[in-house]
Amino acid sequence: MSGAERDLVGRLLGPAGPEVSCETCFELLDRYVEAELAGMDPEAPMPGMRAHLDGCPACREDHDSLLDLVRGERG
After folding, report:
1. Cβ partners under 8 Å of residue 36, min gap 6
2. Minimal CB count within 10 Å: which of 22, 35, 70, 72?
3. Are 14 and 55 in contact (CB under 8 A)?
4. This prediction's pTM
5. How far apart are CA 16 and CA 64, in angstroms?
6. What residue segments make up the domains of the chain, in order of their start?
């Protein structure tokens, strides 16, 4: 099975571990981005966020936009 096929199967089956809702994701997104930019493991204090971002295009777009914004502010 190729990597692309494995990714597709993973998205279809959903996460193996905990996953957060869109509402929870939105509430935690700033802390998650800050942890990412600090070089920390953002998944440790917020389990399920990565799985949610991988499977939810709307939240992933919010994450990517916030990440770009904060990176830009830090120059």
Report:
1. 42, 67
2. 72
3. yes
4. 0.73
5. 23
6. 3-74
